[in-house]
Amino acid sequence: MERSNKRAEAPPGERPGTRPGADRPPTIRGVAARAGVSKSLVSLVLQGSPRVSDAKRQAVLAAIDELGYRPNAAARSLVARRTRTVGVLLNDMRNPWFVEVLDGLNSLLQAHDLRMLMADGRLDRRAGHDFARTFQELRVDGLVVVGTLPDTTGLAEAAERLPTVIAGNHEPRLPHTDLVANDDEHGARLATEHLIGLGHRRIAHIAGQGPVGERRRRGFETAMRSHGLAAHAVVESGDGTEEGGYRAAVRLLGPPRTTRRTPTERPTAVFAFNDISCVGALSAAQELGLDVPADLSLVGYDNTYLARIRHLWLNSVNNASHEVGRRAARCLLDRMARPDAPAGHQLVAPALEIRGSTAPPGAV
Amino acid sequence: MERSNKRAEAPPGERPGTRPGADRPPTIRGVAARAGVSKSLVSLVLQGSPRVSDAKRQAVLAAIDELGYRPNAAARSLVARRTRTVGVLLNDMRNPWFVEVLDGLNSLLQAHDLRMLMADGRLDRRAGHDFARTFQELRVDGLVVVGTLPDTTGLAEAAERLPTVIAGNHEPRLPHTDLVANDDEHGARLATEHLIGLGHRRIAHIAGQGPVGERRRRGFETAMRSHGLAAHAVVESGDGTEEGGYRAAVRLLGPPRTTRRTPTERPTAVFAFNDISCVGALSAAQELGLDVPADLSLVGYDNTYLARIRHLWLNSVNNASHEVGRRAARCLLDRMARPDAPAGHQLVAPALEIRGSTAPPGAV
DNA sequence: AGAGAGCGTTGGACCGTTCCAATCGACGCG
DNA sequence: CGCGTCGATTGGAACGGTCCAACGCTCTCT
């Protein structure tokens, strides 16, 4: 017995019981004792080493099975000095595209035997927790930030200590931190050019707030300008909500409040910041007696399942979130291999999903 | 320099090369050395022990700060034999009510200094992973299963080893495993009685599949029967999708295909299995020229944000998912205190959210 | 026959923390 | 002055694994 310094008066029970009982889960030593081998050999079997005789391997496996032994990840990672875990910080799990990103992340990470530890930044922060600190204490091997981050405090510190990738956001540009984001400007151009291609000239954009809203607006304006339609571009501000989209559309499409605007000036197409505000615009259009798409074409963004409802059936820009996740995972793996590589930034090109909410403009 | 065990020939760069040593994160010993105390004293400070002199405490805190020390959770939990972590198994993160449940869970768990480790069962299973095994290896202190579980293999085994609670599902009844679920039958009764209360008599139900669908159908039938309307109850099967709801509604509301059905027999109200199939029914109604709610009343289920779209504005049953999460957390905490208590099952009562999709029936 | 190689197996050091018993110095008391 | 008390501090043994050097055994080669 290697552990000879055990108390002599300890009862020689089956399990080397600690004082008041409470049977602990079996350890590698328990398995070794049961199989009649050393713990080192059990360790070798666990690692699938080829240099173990078949007889002993069987004995060990049997013992593991009988005792229901499960290796202790904490002990393992303590000596390995890596956890095979990456922290994933989410921000609003209500947002469905997160799931796509996670899905993409997962596909690559699992192939590399890494598990994901997810935290909802919103929940944690509300409780005054600092996710960055927690992830560091857990010694995650890497960090993925998905989406926008209300306060980047702590992130910078975490990022300089462990491989970090930002996915789905352009925002915090940090020294050794890669970034994979949707090319919002490109997506907005796609949507706008689709409308222009149909023959629309007077096209409105219902804008969103924040950096994302700005990029999409910029894409819209760029497309209009490069087709010589800058004079026909209208931007009405929204807030990304249905209500905001509704109100913006009423301002765009309703009876002119100033004497300046004539009926012919009414936009024949609207490109909205996102699907939800597009739905608001749709409501407004119908209330105003405009048929979509005959009288008004609509394009949304994000290709959420709202757009897929037959009742709405919106054209929408699909930002390939799954691809964002995959690429982010790729970046993270690369960075785990070479932590000091310069930060890389890449954009993923979205695609336009065509359904039934656009058509060529009617007779002007 | 404090890190004196560094190879003498290693270049003294800002970032020490990863070559042989790879600077490890500071440990409690490093902090102790820097503060000029023993590691035990550092440990005491970390635990906020009152029996440490102020001078030394300050020295230790300063050292921690300067080195950017973060305690190693693995080492800590190894000796503590608990991780202060509960595993949360999700199944389809696309489903928004999960988030509510998580939110509810989180509120209580964080108050008890427990963190949540989330796994998406769908993702894991696809990769041939066994979440139950993983959670056991991580030695989580408890397990929460949220929603339905495709295969319960492994769960039974996990549940008998660690405190487990099922949230949001009636399904696997296991020995020492509590269960907190939505009272679907009650919710369906609420919806049906609301319609009955408005004066509807001929009411249809678009059913869903699986155990949940069955419970909601049963609630519908019970309510109809207890108001003497069993003869007027119609159940048309759907599949929980928009398409299924649409087709079911067409069968219910469209021109009678058999000579038996007369126009007066057409239902004046439909209670759908969920919001999405309710939206399908809404589409069908509008295509058939029926006005909602004047000609047809609709009630959905789950109170998703679909129901909140002004365009749809559906009455819907709101199963208090946040409350489900809270109660599940409560159960888990109780069970962690007394693991051998008998299994408890509780149902959370839903409420009907009234919007604009119902009205008294028109003249018959 | 002895040396060496190769294979299967083993003891022990170590990972970074907590906890306990022991130590140390200062102090009050008989 | 020696002794017990008390509070602050410390060394060392766990915790449950991995890994490495070393070991014994069999086999082969010279």
Keywords:
434 Repressor (Amino-terminal Domain); Rossmann fold; 3 domains; six-stranded parallel β-sheet; six-stranded mixed β-sheet; 13 helices; 16% strand; disordered N terminus; DNA-binding; LacI family transcriptional regulator (chains A, B); LacI/GalR-like_sensor (chains A, B)
Total domain modules of chain A = 3
- Which strand order does the major sheet of chain A show? 2-1-3-4-5-11
CATH superfamily of the largest domain in chain A: Response regulator
- Assign a percent range to the helix content of chain A: 40-55%
Helix-strand category of chain A: alpha/beta
Please count the helical segments of chain A.
13
CATH architecture of the largest domain in chain A: 3-Layer(aba) Sandwich
SSE order of chain A in H/E notation?
Answer: HHHHEHEHHEHEEHEHEHEHEEHEE
3D structure, described in words:
The structure is a homodimer of 364-residue chains. Chain A is of the alpha/beta class and 364 residues long. Chain A has three domains: 1-71, 434 Repressor (Amino-terminal Domain); 83-182 and 321-348, Rossmann fold, CATH 3.40.50.2300; 184-318, Rossmann fold (3-Layer(aba) Sandwich), CATH 3.40.50.2300. Helices cover 40% and strands 16% of the residues of chain A. The first copy, chain A, is built from 13 helices and twelve strands. Chain A has helices spanning 28-35, 39-46, 54-67, 73-80, 97-111, 121-126, 131-137, 155-161, 184-198, 210-226, 242-253, 275-287, 321-337; strands at residues 85-90, 115-120, 142-146, 164-167, 177-182, 203-207, 233-237, 269-272, 297-301, 315-318, 345-348, 351-353. The first copy, chain A, has a six-stranded parallel sheet with strand order 2-1-3-4-5-11, sandwiched between helices. The first copy, chain A, has a six-stranded mixed sheet with strand order 7-6-8-9-10-12, sandwiched between helices. In chain A, strand 1, helix 5 and strand 2 form a beta-alpha-beta unit. In chain A, helix 1 crosses helix 2, helix 1 packs across helix 3 and helix 9 (184-198) packs parallel to helix 10. Chain A is elongated and about 90 Å long. The termini of chain A are far apart. The model of chain A is unreliable at 1-21 (pLDDT under 50). Chains A and B meet through helix 4, helix 5, strand 2, helix 7 and helix 11 of A and helix 4, helix 5, strand 2, helix 7 and helix 11 of B. Chain A binds a DNA duplex (30 and 30 nucleotides) through residues 2, 5, 27-29, 37-41, 43-44, 46-47, 51-53, 56, 71-81.
